[in-house]
Amino acid sequence: MGYKYYFNCFKEKSDSCSAHLIDGDGTFNDTGLEQLIKEVKLGECGLSYAIVSIMGPQSSGKSTLLNHLFGTNFREMDAFKGRSQTTKGIWMARCAGIEPCTLVMDLEGTDGRERGEDDTAFEKQSALFALAVSDIVLINMWCHDIGREQAANKPLLKTVFQVMMRLFSPRKTTLMFVIRDKTRTPLENLEPVLREDIQKIWDSVPKPEAHKETPLSDFFNVEVVALSSYEEKEEQFKDQVASLRQRFFHSITPGGLAGDRRGVVPASGFSFSAQEIWKVIKENKDLDLPAHKVMVATVRCEEIANEKYGSFVANEKWCQIEEAVESGPVSGFGKKLSAILNISLSEYDAEAIYFDEGVRSAKRQQLEEKLLQLVQPAHQSMLSHIRSGTLEKFKEAFDKALNAGDGFSLAAQTCTQSYMAHFDEWHADAVIEQANWDTSKARDKLRRDIDAHIASVHAAKLSELTSSFEVQFFYDYPFLLLLKLNEALSGPVEALLDGANSGTWAAIKKLLQHETALAVAGFSNAISGFDMDGQSKDKLIASLENYARGVVEAKAREESGRVLIRMKDRFSMLFSHDSESMPRIWTGKEDIRAITKTARSASLKLLSVMVAIRLDDDVDNIETTLSSALMDTKNNAAVKDRSIITFDPLASSSWEKIPSSRTLITPVQCKSLWRQFRTETEYTVTQAISAQEAHKRNNNWLPPPWAIVALVVLGFNEFMTLLRNPLYLGVIFVGFLLIKALWVQLDISGEFRNGALPGLLSLSSKFLPTIMNLLKRLAEEGQNPATADSQRNATKSFQNGSSPLSDSSSSPSSSSASSGVISPQNGTEYSNTLKDD
Ligand SMILES: Nc1nc2c(ncn2[C@@H]2O[C@H](COP(=O)(O)OP(=O)(O)OP(=O)(O)O)[C@@H](O)[C@H]2O)c(=O)[nH]1
Questions:
Q1: To test ligand 1's pocket by mutation, which of 20, 60, 183, 240 has the most ligand atoms within 8 angstroms of CB?
Q2: What is the three-state SS of 420-481?
Q3: N or C end of the chain: smaller count of CB under 10 Å?
Q4: Which residues line ligand 1 at a C-beta cut-off of 6 Å?
Q5: Where in the chain is the domain with CATH 3.40.50.300?
Q6: CATH class of domain segment(s) 2-17+50-206+214-261
């Protein structure tokens, strides 16, 4: 039943399941084989397939056996035509209903009646091919040939054993001897004879050195079966065939009928492998099966890889992604592409799994590299989109943050951090699992772009600020600040220099430091909101400090131009005022020389302070130099003495230890200034001396002692005469009064205060009119009657500067006046008037 079922099953599709693998001329029918493999889906079998072949003498019923055994439809000889060759070359067909997929090859008969002896080469070639590709080789033989010297299969076996040596590393193949037309002799008796025959043949075959001692069993599993005659005992034949068929099921499992399958190639490589083996056999080369296996693996894996690459290129999803990524970012790019790549690689793995591992892995790697190379431009585009997209989004967010009033620095930092993180996130979405590309360059580029944008915005903002409030700050604030600084320094510096003393520059320095520190603090506070780098800030602060110093220096220079005035002021202040700042009255007691020296010293001190800017801690000896050069009287005396030549420390245009930049007044200028100062203050001193002398003169009415002695000696007689005659005394007294009146009237002492000549000139012009006036008034007084209040009038006139003599003729008291008697009251007033004068 089973046999019939499989046979029928085969019959339904027999036409499509066989191929003429190698034709009678030895041409390999690769197309036919491919077609057969495709039809029987051998490519999907991996290693689960078996190849069976049959050899044997021509017309020995091989095809008949195969057709019955495997359900094939190889051409059988028509029994009525007699024995002639029906099978040319090698045919191949699928064994119907046998699992795993088993292919069987029907070889051309070996006793070559048709081809003749010359064609034995084809027998060898086909035998070698069958041994190279088959797991099981059936040797069809007539039962009556067993133990016969001239057995038909003897040359065949010889050939089989010889070619087996040509397989570089032969695999163990199952040789199944199928005894046809078995006789009544039991198989148990036949088999030893057959095995003996086989051994004899094996022993007779010349072997290479390496296999000289190798037993037959190392190369072959020998199996023997016997079948009844198909022609005479068909039913028995069929039953025995059906029984034999069972042995071909799962033949490749361990312990199965198939050999060790060391050299088996994956099913998908069978076609190529068979072609190559035949090619090598045709070229009469030795077959190196391991190398062949690697070669087959290489070719097949490459084919598979190429096929997978091709199918990836044509993959619809990939094409869509590739197209889409050109115009913009693709969501889930990495995942999608990774999945497609995974499919391709998995397919490759599945198809190439049974090939040599080394080859398979190498080809897989190549495929992966090729695929990644293919998708890299798309990934680059994706990265580029992500980078530009992130940059654009950063720009928007940054602008927004700035517009929202966030500080520039804070906004830049926050947005940068945020969008770099976004980039990482978006980039993670684009990562292709299989690729290990370094994307740090893209990240770095984005960072550079962001930084460049921040820098450009910063520059633009600063540029925009020219018309904005902020620039007003940048322009106005420093201006206001400097103005304030100027005010804070100018006035105090002027005041300090005005009262110049040894501590002036220390005080100015302290003031400068204090005001600069205040300004710097204010400026730092004001610019704290701007993203100004430390260097620029330090630069501005340094400028501010320089400006402050510049203000002080400029003020000092300005003040140095007024040094002469200040020296004179100081001189005059000290010279004309006493220690209590009261104006001096030159009474004669003052030491003008000492006062002058003190005043000049103070002026020189002022000069020494004003000659140089001393804002640093350098020490100089300018004051000493000036003092020794200008104040030292001994030195000056020496200079005046032209016979002594001394060194003049002021004969220079620069001060020792003082650079020209800090010099306000050069030594030469000091000398010139001092000379001018002396000249211009000389007059004041002279005036003081004159005033002192005048004061002395005014307060000393007595003649010199010698004059008094001379008067006493020479005028003794006249004095005695006057004492003896009182009339003379009265006349003298009246004369005295008259002269005194003239003295008062003409203000003689006042006139002579400005010198003798001007006094004489003035008196000469006033003398006559005064006399005339006196006389006139005397005349008038004489004519007017005496009044009761004559005494009061006399007093009035006296107070008005009139001579008391004017009343002497008209008032009773005038007699007393004329007689030289002055009332105590009048006398007092007179004396007061003199004092006032
Ligand atoms: N005596 C005998 N004859 C058989 C047997 N089987 C088949 N034959 C006959 O042998 C002849 C040849 O059969 P094939 O199957 O074509 O033989 P073959 O070995 O395939 O022939 P080639 O392909 O030409 O080498 C046919 O006439 C068959 O009927 C058998 O078991 N015993």
A1: 60
A2: HHHHHHHHHHHCCCCCCCCCHHHHHHHHHHHHHHHHHHHHHHHHHHHHCHHHHHHHHHHHHH
A3: N
A4: 58-64, 76-77, 79, 85-87, 109, 180-181, 229-231
A5: 2-17+50-206+214-261
A6: alpha beta
